[in-house]
Amino acid sequence: MEAFTEYLAQIDNPQQRARTEEVLAWVTKKFPNLAPKIAWNQPMFTDHGTFIIGFSVSKHHLAVAPETAGINHFSDEIVQAGYDHTKQLVRIRWDRPVDFSLLEKIIGFNILDKADCSTFWRK
């Protein structure tokens, strides 16, 4: 979590900071083999140098970015969880609970799907 200390300190809203910290700590604990880092001014996690998932804070939501493949694979479950999404990100509104089981599936999918990936992003 040290990698995210400065990022978290910049979030002015205490509830948003607490929620973001909760999600980042959960990912760190659930997936200890992932490397936490800040890139493009956003917290993210990588595996063997390849992007797995990223997060960003917006006024109305926490954005979760698992790349298009992760969103496409779980699109129905994302909608069932009550989240809206674009091709690149899932929006978890601050007033909605985090579906950690869905987040676990998305991260697990990316880890497996990118096991042999040698680039940061999918091609």
Using brief descriptors, characterize the structure shown:
40% helix; single chain; 123 residues; six-stranded antiparallel sheet; Aspartate Aminotransferase, domain 1; alpha+beta
Structure overview:
- The chain has 123 residues and is α+β, with helices and mostly antiparallel strands.
- The chain is built from five helices and six strands; from the N terminus they run ααββββααββα.
- The chain has helices at 5-9, 14-30, 67-73, 75-80, 100-113, and strands at residues 35-39, 42-47, 50-57, 61-65, 84-85, 90-93.
- A six-stranded antiparallel sheet has the order 1-2-3-4-6-5.
- A hairpin with a 2-residue loop joins β2 and β3 (50-57).
- α3 crosses α5 (100-113).
- The chain is globular and about 40 Å long.
- Residues 16-111 form the YdhG-like domain.
- Pfam families: DUF1801.
Secondary structure topology:
Layout: H1 5-9, H2 14-30, E1 35-39, E2 42-47, E3 50-57, E4 61-65, H3 67-73, H4 75-80, E5 84-85, E6 90-93, H5 100-113
CATH class wording: Alpha Beta
Shape: globular
Helix and strand sequence: HHEEEEHHEEH
Look at the helices and sheets and give the structural class. alpha+beta
Average pLDDT, to the nearest integer?
A: 96
Helical region count?
5
Low-confidence stretches: none
* Strands, count: 6
CATH architecture: Alpha-Beta Complex
Query: Biggest sheet, in brief?
Result: 6 strands, antiparallel
Number of domains: 1
Helix content: 25-40%
CATH topology: Aspartate Aminotransferase, domain 1
- The proportion of strand residues reads 15-25%
Strand order in the sheet with the most strands: 1-2-3-4-6-5
Distance between the termini: 29 Å
- What is the CA-based Rg, rounded? 14 Å
